[in-house]
TrEMBL record:
It comes from the Bacteria. Residues 1-20 are annotated as: Disordered. This is Uncharacterized protein. It comes from Olleya marilimosa.
Length: 118
């Protein structure tokens, strides 16, 4: 995956610089009881056409589950599940620059998200 950034220098106006970075998708909850089941399943499609399915484990001490989307991904789809439908913050952002691609608050048990990089 490659993003394009334009330089703001007067001499280089309009010159483009290629930026490649991985991305993070994370789901943050409030404090949960240990019996509450939380899951994140992600299907990654890479530049070479290979697909892989990744199941991420929820960290009950930090109340977060996340997945790193590698820079050679062309698309991904994920499904997040939480046993009780308490409020969850979803954030999808660049690993290096921290800039949000998407962020929202979820109040449902099951949530699906798909993204294709340009």
């Amino acid at each position: 995956m490659s993003l394009v950034a334009c330089s703001s220098d007067d001499e280089n106006q309009g010159e483009e610089q290629q930026i490649s970075q991985s991305h993070i998708v994370e789901f943050t909850t409030g404090t949960l009881e240990s019996w509450v089941s939380v899951g994140l399943t992600t299907i990654l499609t890479l530049e070479d056409g290979t697909e892989s399915t990744i199941n991420s484990d929820f960290d009950y001490t930090q109340n977060i589950v996340s997945i790193e989307i590698p820079e050679n991904a062309v698309s991904f789809e994920l499904e997040f599940y939480i046993e009780d439908s308490s409020q969850v913050e979803m954030r999808f952002y660049g690993f290096l620059d921290g800039i949000n691609v998407h962020q929202e608050t979820i109040n449902q048990q099951s949530y699906q998200y798909q993204y294709t990089f340009n």
